[in-house]
Queue: 2 jobs
Job 1
Amino acid sequence: MLAKMLIEQYGGADGELSAALRYLNQRYSIPDKVIGLLTDIGTEEFAHLEMIATMVYKLTKDATPEQLREAGLGDHYVNHGYSLFYHDAAGNPWTAAYIASKGDPIADLYEDIAAEEKARATYQWIIDNTDDPDIKDSLRFLREREVIHSLRFREAVEILKEYQGSKKVF
Amino acid sequence: MDGTSAEWRSYVNFRSPFDPCPARVKWYDVPPAVTYPVQKSARKQFAPQEALRKGTLWPEYDSPYPPV
């Protein structure tokens, strides 16, 4: 049951895959000063994707098909067996339509901030739904990282405000 | 959730005057990154091991969940 919910952070709209691909794609066209930040956070999101994958894998690897069915993962088992797949908790496959790239630095950074806040909320709702102490610990860590990423993107907006201003000095 | 954490705000959703159900307080988080969107310099730090567990180096950006 928990694995089914965790899959939301694997292949969901505000999941770690969406986050990593969103940031690593935006960094080509963003001003130089914040490329490093997008590279840094985008790469970290891939590490988080691995953490989620490991949690889902370990929660399901020894379950019988019947147990998977009882946990609501019967459809997943029929389609994917014990392997993971990039879809959300409701079974919708991951799509690039989840992420955006407007080519406008401020619009893109505000999209990133919104994505971090949505991921933070998602982690809260998953934490509310489990009593597994080790999973809870890991999810609390991941939630805190979303808070810090949000902070870093907000700072990037401040950097760009200054940056735009400094360009006007002749 | 007792609302003792400074991060959390409470509200009661709209209800019709004829709603027979008792009002229920809901909560939402205003994380420290929203309140302080730019880091100050020379701030207190967690010890490295503790920072690794918490997910942040900075006590003022530590946002426990569920709130304490």
Job 2
Amino acid sequence: MLNRKFIPILVTIGLFAVMLAAGSFRYTGFFSLQVVFNLLIDNAFLLVVAVGMTFVIVSGGIDLSVGSMIALTTMISASLIQEHGMPPIVVIPIVLVIGCAFGWAMGAIIHYFKVQPFIVTLAGMFLARGLCYIISLNTITIDNSTYTTIAQTKIKLPGGSFLSINVIIALIVVVLAIFVAHYTRFGRNVYALGGSEQSALLMGLPVARTKIGVYVVSGFCSSLAGVIYTFYMLSGYGLHAVGVELDAIASVVIGGTLLTGGVGYIAGSFFGVMIYGVIQTIISFQGTLSSWWTKIVIGLLLFVFILLQRVLSARRSSVKM
Amino acid sequence: MIDRQPILQMNGIYKSFPGVRALKGVDFRLFAGEVHALMGENGAGKSTLIKTLTGVYSVDEGKVMLDGKEIRPHSPQDAQGVGISTVYQEVNLCPNLTVAENIYIGREPRRFGIIQWKEMNKNASVLLSERLSLHIDVSLPLQSYSVAIQQLIAIARALSISAKVLILDEPTSSLDRNEVQQLFTIMRKLKNEGLAILFVTHFLDQVYEISDRITILRNGEFVGESLAADLPRIELVSRMIGKELNLLEEMPKSQAEEQADTDDIWIEASNLGRTGAIEPFNLAIRRGEVVGLAGLLGSGRTEIARLFFGADRADQGKLKLAKSGEAIRSPRDAISQGIGFCPENRKIEGIIDDLSVRENIILALQATRGWFRTINRKRQDEIAEQYIGTLNINPPNPEHLVKNLSGGNQQKVILARWLLTQPELLILDEPTRGIDVGAKAEIQKLVMSLSQQGMSVLFISSELEEVLRVSGKIAVLRDRRLVKEIEGQDISPHHVMQAIAGG
């Protein structure tokens, strides 16, 4: 028998397949491996952020600071490289540590002061975005050779298609995250925390460490996404990645993760991001539609998915009786 | 047997909270291979004693010895570490995780830090089937099983942490008869395997069915310990409340006949039903009549109550006031027609913790008046004083925050709230759940005197005796169907039981 808990994720995968098929049918040139790969290339940073966001949402929290964190990372990277002449091998670890520290601080406030994650990460969002402008009001373009090489490297695959280094990083993050979520104590504790914090506490699980850990993971993922974004844009700018936190949350929810916590899969978020990408691609192939149609479709999809989850969980509780 | 050493011994335990001395020199001992019931009314100190054992509170004075060694647990984990595990009434597990995970989380079998799911599932299956005779799929999420099974899984978790002492705190409150029997079978098995079980419950029948030994507490003091076989029920009850329990016996037995005399139907449900909740039923309530709903847990008692109050929408049939013919479609309609509803779960649906007794009492009256016609403070104080007096709410302070009241007194506050609106029909869903014997009798008595004053009452309780005692008519429910109405002289335990059991 099909396990009920897999239904949302199967719907997500099915939807992705249908959209891909519809696009291929409708537009010539759509049906190619490269189109799929481009989805990955253009959304590698979103994929990484969505992975971190999945952990946070499964734990029962939310992280609104990720978009600003990407911008701050691009800004710090650009500034250190261009204005202070530091080598990328030093800069990248620095920004990743900053991301983790930022996440840790928010997690600690959320846990120890018992403040809602929404408001703490909202503060984090303003803070990180604001800090960008302390570094510079304008775009800092990066012309460091390492960065440009990474940005332009195409990993050729048989059949003439290619991937970027960003995609490889993102895919490694996805695989690692699936492993962490399902085969480590930390991962299982995150699910337990999302299921019932009170129970997790009484079962003797390290609630404080897990809760703060989740925001560290999200901070790390968003700064890594910032690094990827820097490779992708080759610049640092305070207006980079505006609203990405909401894109990430939408992808995670479309991927079948419950906002109430406790239920969700990294793989679901992967397909959530891919659906996002497909919609963008279809709209650009269409050519006559404005890019805002992406938002409209995502909005409608979100409604559908939230209702779907509602229906499924209502069924589940009636089965229980 | 007599000269065995107890596995757990608590001597002269004192514990105070600001303003309250919760435990005053309590002794307690627990032998291996024994089920020991801890009895006492609300406020007797049962839960405080258990919390000092499980490390939630630390003791002010006194000694706790486990296996001859003194222990001082500082947290539930500490207590678990030395072999004391607790299973609470509300299952403290994670509904979204699998059964196996719930048993082993935090202690999963790992190889190089990688969780071994196969091994964990196998261990869980073996544990559940060998020790609890429970053969279920451990890879399904916990929420796919009933509360009864979830509780057994919680016990399995406690056992797998190699418990010597198992504390079961009100484990049967939300179980039906069969589930209780299933739990008891397992308790007997574990007991025979040498586990010491501390059992807390409000149900006297269950105490006598399962316990070997009983300890009684009253007002934080140790009253006595004896073998269950040597302690008659009436003596247990009188030692619990510290006086002869005559309240119940004094109840007017002719109640049922008096009620049956009137033929003045106040509200009538005809063919009323809601898919998935309750099958269509007919039920009329007369003026001044107490209608009891009897049936097992999940038989549809609460569902009927909610339909009568308009809290759930019926998808067929009609609910009409006999006199005016007006229909009830929402709680708003119900309130304006004079129906009051005390819901089952007072914590969630009834009481507002952070308001005072006075404010909680005033709420429904204020709601019926609309928000613009306020009730002045002087009038509020008068009302609060009056109901605190008539319902005997303790402490008698209208400005006391409701969350600091005991369960029985909270229940009285909700009752006061609805009585104040002078309803013609009062729906009481489990008004006596989780409150002590004395308060129960008071509430039963109140229900009867209200009906004598002409108020109709729809009374729901899982305690059959109680329903029998107060009702003039009993509607028996089975499997979400109203199967029988029993009235007047025909009301007897035998009749009702027969109808509940069916066949």
